[in-house]
Amino acid sequence: MSEILNFKEEYEKVLTELLEKCKISNLLDKIKKNLNIIKLNFKKSIKGYHIVNKTPIKEAPWEEINSQILNKSKIYINYCANGSHISGCDLKTNFGNISNKTSKKNGKYYNISSYRLTSVCSDKNIGNIDTIINEISKRDKTFDYYSILSRGEIKNNINYIWYIIPKNIDIFNPKKYIWKKMFGKRGEKKGKQTGWISNNLNNCQMKITFSMSSQLWIKIDISNIYQYQISKVNCNINDNTIDYIDLYDKLFI
User: Of 232, 234, 214, whose CA–CA distance to 222 is shortest?
Assistant: First the structure.
């Protein structure tokens, strides 16, 4: 009986892995087949946003813009979180589920915010790293890849780069890192545990800071994701020529 149960568990594990690979492969294949129109729709959407907005595109706007780009490119959205703070999936398609992220470029790195983990670790309950890793892995099951919009800001110019990255590459897997306790170095927190921090993997790192709602942050060396770049566009915010009132007047009056 135990041999049958073990076989069933192993079979289900292999089947799950195959299904995930198929979804990711199908999505990337779909993107490649529609790459030119996707790139065009990306540039139209980003520049369209900046016709009326000077502020950079961050989390909630990117979710809506990303949804528009994919829908117009015949990768139809079945679900949109609409800015919800629920962990994990933001957009669902027939080709896999998406977690949307934005990040401002910092040298050769992007810093990506992820789950709040107060249910498994905090300054009052430091938690167990195995439990924490399992919680991260459980939430990761809700989506198949990251859609990351990065930006580099120089004076009045914002340079955007869009990546779609399979979530199962090593730099996003907390089990691939070696974790240790993180301690305060000054003030009243000196010598006290303030979170958890990983080693470097391909020059990337994960960190959980209790004072920031035990949020998981991932530091990504850009060289690890070059191959997943979809498109890029530069916007000069001085080109802003219309406000919402003018837009309404042009459309409805």
Answer: 232
| Residue 135 parent element (H or E) | helix 129-140
Given this model, what pLDDT does residue 3 score? Answer: 57
- The pTM is what? 0.85
* Three-class DSSP category at 70: helix
Residues written for the chain:
253
Instruction: Identify the band that residue 253 occupies on the pLDDT scale cut at 50, 70 and 90.
Output: confident
The two structure tokens encoding residue 221: 């060396």
Tokens 């990351």 identify what position? Answer: 148
User: How many other C-beta atoms lie within 10 A of the C-beta of residue 15?
Assistant: 10
Please list, residue by residue across 37-65, b when 16 or more beta carbons sit within 10 angstroms of its beta carbon and e when fewer do. ebbebbbebbeebbeeeeebbeeebbbbb
Domain span at 144? 2-237+244-252
For the chain, the domain total comes to: 1
pLDDT digits (tens, 9 = 90+) for 107-154: 999 999 999 999 999 999 999 999 999 999 999 888 998 999 999 999
